[in-house]
Amino acid sequence: MAGSQLKRLKASLRDQGIIGPQQSKKQKRKTAEELKAKPDKRLQRGEALASIREQFNPFQFKTNARGPKFDVTTNKPAGDKAAMGIKGRPGVAKAVGEQRRRETLLLEMQRRNKVGGLIDRRFGEDDPNLSLEDKMIERYTREQQRNHKKSSMFDLEEGDEPMGGLTHMGRPLFDDDDDDEAHPKDDFDEEDLPSGDESDSSRAERRRLKRQRLEEAAEDQQEEDGQPERKKTKKEIYEEIIAKSKAHKFERQAAKDEDNELREELDTAMPELQALLFQRQPPPAKDGKDTREPVIIAGKDKAALDKDYDIRVKQLAADTRAQPAERTKTEEEQAEEEATRLKELEEKRLRRMRGETIEEDEEDEEEEERRGKGKKKKADAEEQPANPFDDEEEDEFGLGKGVPGKGTKYRPTATELGFDDEDDFLIDDDLVASGSELELDSDDMEDEESDDEDAGSESGSDDDEFVKGILTEAVTKDAVFHLADKAKGSDENGIPYTFPCPQTHEEMLKAFERLDVTKLPVAVQRIRALYHPKLDSKNKERLGKFSQVLVQHVAYMGDRFEPHWFPTLENLCRHIHSLAKSFPIEVAKAYRAHIQEIEEQRPLGLTVGDLLVLTAIGTTFPTSDHFHQVVTPAMLAIGRFLGQKIPQRLSDYATGTYLAILALQYQQFSKRYVPELMNFCLNTLCSLAHEKPLEKLGFFPVHEPAAGVQIKGASKTAVRQLNCADCQQQPLSPAAESSLKVAIISTTVAILKAAAETWHKLSAFHETFLPALLVLQHLNSPPNSAHLPPSLAAKLADAASTLARHLQLARLARRPLELHHHKPLAIRTYVPKFEDSFDPNKHYDPDRERAELAKLKAEHKRERKGALRELRKDAAFMQRENLRVKKQRDEAYEKKYKRLVAEIQGEEGRAANEYAREKEARKRKAARGR
Amino acid sequence: MAAAVADSAVKTAVKRKRQENGDTGKKRRKSGSGGDGDDDDLKTHIQKLEAEIQESRKHYNNIATLAELAQKHDENPKAAIAASEALCRIFIRLLAAGNLVKRKDASERDATVTSWLRDRLADYRKALLAMFRSKKVAFDALMLAMALLKAEAQHLGDRQDAVFPRYFFSDIVATLIESPVDQLREHFSENFIDQYDDIRFYTFEALKTYLTDREHSVDEDTRSVVFEMLISMEDVPESNDDLEDFYIEPPQKKKHPLRSLSQHKKQAQEAWLALFHLGLSKEQRKKVLEAMATSIAPWFTQPELLMDFLTDCYNSGGSISLLALSGVFYLIQERNLDYPEFFTKLYSLLDADILHSKHRSRFFRLLDTFLGSSHLPAVMVASFIKRLARLALNAPPSAIVVIVPWFYNLFKKHPLTTFMMHRVPRTKEEKELIESEGVEDPFLPDEKDPMETHAIDSCLWEIVQLQSHYHPNVATIAKIISEQFTKQAYSLEDFLDHSYGSLLEAEMSKEVKKPPVVEYMIPKKIFTKAAPDSEEKDSLLVSLWDFGSS
């Protein structure tokens, strides 16, 4: 665009159509008219002018010193202000700032050193644009609006009162019933008041009338229809609207009435309904009461009734039976569910075995789903205890001072997983009406219990013979449970039906004093039924203690065992197991206490009771877990005996053999290696062999056998199995001794064979079992085998060949170790090498904190600068203002001064004039006089 | 002045005695029995005798009376003590006055008196030594004897310097050794040997002479007594300047043996050698070996003399070898002992019992030091690793826990040995061979020389097996060798000194807070056999054990 500034201005004005070639008069008139029709055109013109003005003022913008940037250098869209190089509008900014200061700072300045004052809040007082009249009008309307509560007088939908409330003696204006004649009746009002006691006759009358009217209206309509469409008058329209709304209103009213009626009906029928809901036959005595209930209700005071009602509502809300039950599942579905559940459990066990941590959250969610809402409370309680080993985590292997488990996160229990239902001894929770105490006395409670058990027997699909026992019993002994608390009966076996719940072992011994040992399980069953946690809040604690006592009792019985007790003991162990599902912590503590006792009192002198307890631990808890609070110590205790005991007597060997079996059984699933087992077994065989091996058979430590342990001349002895009596120290006849020796050898050989089966996949199988093979061969060599019964020798040969086969297989399966196929570790990098969409203005600090700090610092700096600038500007403004005020003052002073001077001068001048005149006059006079 | 010192020694002895007997004496006084009068009489009698002796030489015969009293310590210990105290005072005075020194210029009568007095002094000594055997008077007798010793040292010789009365002292030591009162020896070593350098010096000498003189007649008890005494002298002075506490005024000469540390050491060494010469019981040997590096070897000026003893012990095998190891190590480290085939011998120590031994931790500390050098041949280190890995297959958890981190450290130090963990077949043929034939372990377990075992060509299958150890912590630790070696080294001390007890305690000390997992299936059978027609299989326990239900 060439040309001078002026030319350019002209051109742009012409472009905008603000100026143009001269127009004729006609044209001018036309544009003027157009302007009048479209006032915004004028606005447009103003805008255009403003833009032109801006465009031509080079100081209006702050621009880039070197002009706009090239497109390639910036990622801001073209045509943007920033892209054009305009960075700001100093003029506008300044003006805005000035304006703001004038509004705030100036006011403050003026109010400085002044106290008090009036703020005028009258409407429009500050607005200079309003004329006095406008102000008055506005104020009046505001006042009206304020006084006018009701938004519209004709709002039919709102309120029943047609006009401003009660006016006539506190009664509505149109009370239709009483004063039918007295008041003129609104036609439309006839259906309006739907009071219950309205007489049917009047209603019918009104309906008739209405029908009439409608018919008339229809006739009108028809008449109108005949004619060409007549425009309705406003009145008609309004009438129509009113009619419609009244009709709607009536409908609503009717519906409400119906509801009310229904509710009342329900209210009166409530007690019966409730009885139905609870499915209980009300006792006959109460029946009479029920019939008279309305009377009583009428007689009772209202508060009591309300309270009653509230209680009922709460019960109903809390009643689980009020909730829809799940659909009964078909057998296939049940089987499938069971299968998936077992599979899940198995997977979890495997995960635990590998020592992997299970995400607890996920677990919890699953549980939540399974359990439903009813058991949320329980879930919360379980979430509470933190990981018990968290605090030890900082020690890397948890060895520290005292070698705890590392990386062994706590894993949820079966109960947590929602399997208490699997515990078949427990009576199904849902079947006990928890809220029924209101009308239940103790008799009812017992009824309930037997009911529950009935139900349990129906639903109990499990084939556990315990359940059957308890259930059939419960069914047959309904009466017993009735009497339970009162009469201490006993059944045909002499077992009392009720027991105190033993809380200590002494109590238990006392309670079962007169009971035959074989009857113990029945007693335990009864105790568990009698003290079911659902029956009393304290029962939970009691049963928890009881389960601990049971553990002690197993050990106690084990120490005094009789061979025929074992079915009983087994039963007790299973009871403990099932109790452990509900009371895992208590049972675990009891077992741990027993292990502790072993450790402190007889680490190397285990009794039969200890053996049984260790066996029970192995069945109650999953022995395959990488870490388990009970199993790990138990395994350690076993390992300690096997590793450290130097057997002196044959009973020690027997005990060790039992423990070796147990250790192997513990590891049946997870197949973990137990070095002590190998040591003990090989040592046992070497010690019992008739002759000592000539050379070392392996790296296991050999203890010098005690005198008389070596087997001698037992070739005629029959091979038998070991039993618990062998673990007890007792004097033996030579024959019994050799039989025991043979039994130990045969069992140990069997253990070795089983161990080889269990561990045949281990990587150092060859090294581990080669000594075993050597020992077996040594034992079966002529000088030794001569002292062994031929069947045992055959067994030895068989075991040796099995071992040899396994060893061969292991040798073939062995591969060089390749443990370190790890990804090479990357060197830690801190600053990324490359950044997409890199912006040099941005700071790419990988250190988050530092970046944030830098950001804060920058912000602080910016703010500080801004504040300083503002303060400076404020100061300048204030100075300017002060100067202005001063100038004003000075000016006023000057003016005044000048005025005064002028006044004085004027006066003086006049006086001087007068004087001059006088002088002149005198002069003249004198002259005349002369 | 010397006399004053001696007097004070006597006084302390008396005071001590009074403290001991004070209570009983008071009680007796209160009871006012007849015996009390006797005692008092005796005391005044003794005092009178003493005073008379002081008065004039006429009453010297009283010394004989007093000596007689002192000898009767079995019948009347109190009187004996009082008498010997009095005698002690008398003799110290006499010694201080020079009455016991033979002078050439003395008259014949004086000489007779002197020799008579000397005889009485000898009697008195004997009496004192005899008192060592009785429990009641032994302590006082010891104090008096030592006081007398001091006085004799200062005044008996006619020279200016004090001369240590060796014969008397060796008599004292000999009686001490033979005395049945154990506390007396303790008292002696506490108050004299540990306190005074010269006493220790002469004790060593006395012990040596005692042992050499009675070479054949020394019985087991005395040997152990001597052993105890020797072993209690453990504070070895570091330089000549440390020798400054002397009981008897030290000789002025700088060169005197008492002033030289090497002479002290020589005495100690000779005493020990004399003891070793007599032979030691197994228990004593163990004790000696345990104390070897700390309190015996430092006494030796020529530790080479110990070498035979130590090598003998080291070669004898068993726990004695283990214990001798630290002594041998001391010699190697401090005395530059060259032990031929040290590592072969060390390797041979790794036998089946080492991981079960109670000296395990001690051994591992030493082993860590021995194999700490990164300049050792990797082949040998590999042998140690492999041998220990083999042993770990039969080891208790507390031993495995030490071994594996130690392996880790060795792997870090000797990267060549890491082939034992990671060996990729190089050629296709090799791979096929392995696939078809499996692998034979090239390690020779019976090879004695650690350089020849081919362990470096082997793999650590044993440790991989221990990764599935029944104890979770052990398994986790065993896993460190198959994880990336990011850690610089493990501190061995964290893993030493564990046992079944400590592991169990660690487990039990944790409170059960979270409910433990319970087996979800309640087993049908635990002790009883399954019904023959059911599909259930008997558990291992039931099939191998007779629970009386067949």
TrEMBL record, chain A:
Q: What does this protein do?
A: Involved in nucleolar processing of pre-18S ribosomal RNA. Has a role in the nuclear export of 40S pre-ribosomal subunit to the cytoplasm.
Acidic residues: which segments have biased composition? 175-199, 217-226, 358-368, 438-464
Q: Where is the composition biased (Basic and acidic residues)?
A: 30-44, 132-146, 227-238, 243-257, 324-357, 908-921
What's an example GO BP annotation here?
Answer: maturation of SSU-rRNA
**Location in or out of the cell:** Nucleus, Nucleolus
Q: Specify where the region named Disordered lies, as residue ranges.
A: 1-44, 62-98, 120-238, 243-262, 318-423, 437-464, 908-930
As for family, the record states: Belongs to the NOP14 family.
**Do you know which InterPro entries this protein is assigned to?**
Nop14
Task: Output a single Gene Ontology CC term carried by this record.
Answer: small-subunit processome
Q: Which PANTHER family match?
A: NOP14, NUCLEOLAR PROTEIN 14
The highest taxon in the source lineage is Eukaryota
- Residues folding into a coiled coil are 850-888
Protein name as annotated: Nucleolar complex protein 14
Q: Which UniProt keywords apply?
A: Coiled coil, Nucleus, Ribosome biogenesis, rRNA processing
UniProtKB/TrEMBL annotation, chain B:
The CCAAT-binding factor domain covers: 321-478
Q: Note the topology in the membrane.
A: Multi-pass membrane protein
**Where is the segment annotated Disordered?**
1-42
Record's keyword annotation contains Transmembrane: yes
One Gene Ontology CC term in the entry: Noc4p-Nop14p complex
- What UniProt keywords are attached to this protein's entry? Membrane, Transmembrane, Transmembrane helix
> Where in the cell is the protein located?
Nucleus membrane
Give the primary localization class: nucleus
Cite the PANTHER family for this sequence.
Answer: NUCLEOLAR COMPLEX PROTEIN 4, NUCLEOLAR COMPLEX PROTEIN 4 HOMOLOG
The similarity comment for this entry is: Belongs to the CBF/MAK21 family.
Name of this chain's protein: CCAAT-binding factor domain-containing protein
